[in-house]
Design goal:
The protein has about 240 residues and is α/β, with parallel strands linked by helices. Helices cover about 25% and strands about 30% of the residues. The chain is built from seven helices and 16 strands. The chain is globular.
Length: about 240
Amino acid sequence: MNILATSGGFQPGQRTRWVPGPLIDFAIELAGSPARPRFCYVGTAGGDSVLGTAAAYEAFTGRDVDVSHLALFPMPNVEDVRAHLLAQHVVWVGGGSVAGLLAMWRLHGIDAIVGEAWRSGVVLAGVSAGSLCWHVGGSTDSFGPRLRPVTNGLALLPYSNGVHYDSEQQRRPLFHRLVGDGTLPPGYATDDGVGLHYRGTELAEAVSDTPGKSAYRVEPDGRGGAVETVIEPRLLGGGR
């Protein structure tokens, strides 16, 4: 059972809007590097943006990957969502509103389906909202530019999660406060370009597509604050 929770994934392309970055290649590797990987892009957090979905398909141009997508707006685009997700090697969840994602997934029963898929061996992965969702919670801009806590994640992983730790000024202090005061359990955070690989519910390693980036373990310090421990990630092949 593998989850790859990241602050990265697709990267800007020269001929296409996106190309699969080393983090996406690693997610496919976790699935056993099948000859023709089945990769499902889920854009719920971005309101099932047509542009985002098209970019995900286009990103794999010239690669022997069976790309599909799951959309929930205005209705599910596949007749049997459960069968579709359980047939994938990798389910990749894009960024956006994690609050909206959680609400829509619960409305359609996706929360239970992705848990079943994970237990059956499908690699669950994603960026930002697609990282937060697998955890107990974290901080989100789902409600506006001022970050707020989200505490009703799927909790497949019994930790909190911080994303975009080095690129968004509010992220680190709020995450420390939420963990320090007990709003969130201890957890892990990622700089942009870094992913957390969980095998089962245990962190196996941190990985990165960019040199000089880090992951972090954040725990209460017993005085209402938090203590942060740097986790040096393994630089993936093809890193920038």
